[in-house]
């Protein structure tokens, strides 16, 4: 006779369990990223402080091997990053470095190879967890580095963990949907899959003159066989939760109907939040939580990744809120006492205030881009293949 506990445990099936990539060494390594110091620990500590760890299936990652990295990156780029990462500062920059983007925004600071390959290992572990059917949702908040190219670091992204995770999902799922919620265009992932019908990339991001990376225009819809399988939703400063969720749900609904994805990867870069130093959009965590809830409703394998996010307390608030929502847990508004409590002042609350910048996204503008995207999606038709998931 199983006890209540056993029976309640047994009804945690693969479809309700949420896999969560974490181990102490991994998080300490991610904490060392110069531009986001301690952000990984702040996110994990808040999730732990809300008592969510016992409800998560923690998966401990290993660093990606060179073979793993070669699924997407060129060997010469991998070798160069390895070499530069082991040097200390003086003889750091040879002309190789420049051609691989390993200067300026992406310095090959000591240990960057270990950090970047650990993060790829985290997203690989999450993707494998989904292809093996152990859970329907897997989360790697330290992942999401969407700008990295095959042979070039870019925008503070060194190895593209997202592309490699999608390639792994593609070993089992015929059609994979990639959704990018980061403030910046997910150019590295779009470039990797712009000429295939097997991966549809949908990026919601700010477009403005001089704003990085400068790509992701509405007319960029993919090339060759991949034409119409790239979707870009260019948005302007002042975006609100309501306007975002309206365009998000209408576009994603059409994408779902046209592309019929069998697995979804969603990059949840939190630099689109109000309070981020970019000070671009007025979004709160509700925009992210509701977007993920929307994707969750389709109940196919879902991989969630982090990305940008330079107001570290707000980034932790956003990703902890998403994690709570995945577990159908209502999190109390008051931030629990924990190691980083003092960073959550002055309000010490989980919710983020909406920004009040003027919204440059007029109704007319939003209607124009919605109609344009709907028109392009009319050209997408996938035959319902017989393959099981
Ligand atoms: C160096 C960081 C990554 C940090 N950062 C912070 C510093 C203070 C305010 C924002 C940037 O703007 N950065 C960038 C610099 C050059 C090019 C790209 C990015 C960001 C990319 C990104 O977030 N993609 O999703
Ligand atoms: Zn970003």
From TrEMBL:
- Kindly state which keywords UniProt assigns to this record, in alphabetical order: Chromatin regulator, Chromosome, Cytoplasm, Hydrolase, Metal-binding, Nucleus, Repressor, Transcription, Transcription regulation
Where does the chain bind a divalent metal cation? 182, 184, 271
Which family does this protein fall into? Answer: Belongs to the histone deacetylase family. HD Type 1 subfamily.
Where on this chain does substrate bind? 105, 155, 310
Cofactor names from the entry are: a divalent metal cation
> What PANTHER family does this protein's entry cite?
HISTONE DEACETYLASE 8, HISTONE DEACETYLASE HDAC1-RELATED
- Species name: Capitella teleta (Polychaete worm)
Q: Which reaction does it catalyse?
A: N(6)-(2E)-butenoyl-L-lysyl-[protein] + H2O = (2E)-2-butenoate + L-lysyl-[protein]; N(6)-acetyl-L-lysyl-[protein] + H2O = L-lysyl-[protein] + acetate; N(6)-acetyl-L-lysyl-[histone] + H2O = L-lysyl-[histone] + acetate
- Chloroplast listed as a keyword: no
Which InterPro entries does the record associate with it? HDAC_I/II, HDACs, His_deacetylse_dom, His_deacetylse_dom_sf, Ureohydrolase_dom_sf
Protein name (record):
Histone deacetylase
Q: Which GO terms describe its molecular function?
A: histone deacetylase activity, hydrolytic mechanism; metal ion binding
The record's GO CC annotations read: chromosome; cytoplasm; nucleus
Which residues are annotated as active site? 147
UniProt EC number: 3.5.1.98
Main localization is nucleus
Compartment list = Chromosome; Cytoplasm; Nucleus
Q: Which residues form the Histone deacetylase domain?
A: 37-324
Q: Which GO terms describe its biological process?
A: heterochromatin formation
């Amino acid at each position: 006779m199983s006890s209540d506990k056993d029976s309640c445990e047994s009804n945690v099936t693969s479809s309700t369990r949420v896999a969560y990539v974490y181990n102490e060494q991994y998080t300490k390594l991610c904490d060392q990223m110069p531009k986001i110091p301690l952000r990984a620990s702040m996110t994990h500590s808040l999730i732990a402080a809300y008592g969510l760890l016992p409800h998560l299936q923690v998966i401990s990652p290993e660093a990606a091997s060179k073979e793993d990295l070669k699924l997407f990156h060129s060997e010469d780029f991998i070798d160069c990053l390895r070499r530069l990462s082991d040097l200390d500062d003086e003889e750091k920059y040879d002309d190789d470095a420049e051609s691989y983007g390993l200067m300026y925004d992406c310095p090959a600071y000591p240990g960057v190879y270990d950090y970047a390959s650990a993060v790829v290992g985290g997203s690989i572990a999450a993707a494998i967890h989904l292809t093996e059917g152990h859970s329907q949702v897997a989360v790697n908040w330290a992942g999401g580095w969407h700008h990295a190219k095959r042979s070039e670091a870019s925008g503070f992204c060194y190895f593209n963990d997202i592309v490699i995770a999608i390639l792994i999902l593609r070993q089992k799922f015929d059609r994979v949907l990639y959704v990018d919620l980061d403030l910046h265009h997910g150019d590295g992932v779009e470039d990797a899959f712009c000429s295939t019908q097997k991966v549809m990339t949908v990026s919601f991001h700010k477009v403005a003159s001089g704003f990085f990376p400068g790509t992701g225009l509405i007319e960029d819809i993919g090339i060759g066989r991949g034409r119409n399988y790239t979707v870009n939703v260019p948005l302007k400063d002042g975006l609100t939760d309501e306007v975002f969720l309206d365009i998000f749900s209408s576009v994603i609904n059409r994408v779902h109907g046209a592309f019929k994805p069998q697995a979804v990867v969603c990059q949840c870069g939190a630099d689109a939040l109000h309070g981020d130093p970019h000070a671009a959009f007025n979004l709160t965590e509700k925009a992210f939580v509701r977007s993920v809830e929307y994707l969750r409703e389709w109940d196919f394998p879902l991989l969630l990744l982090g990305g940008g996010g330079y107001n570290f307390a707000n980034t932790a608030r956003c990703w902890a809120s998403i994690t709570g929502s995945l577990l159908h847990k209502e999190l109390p508004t008051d931030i629990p006492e924990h190691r980083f409590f003092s960073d959550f002042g002055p309000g010490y609350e989980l919710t983020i205030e909406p920004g009040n910048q003027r919204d440059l996204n007029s109704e007319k503008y939003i209607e124009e881009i919605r109609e344009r995207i709907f028109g392009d999606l009319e050209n997408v038709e996938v035959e319902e293949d017989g393959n099981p998931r």
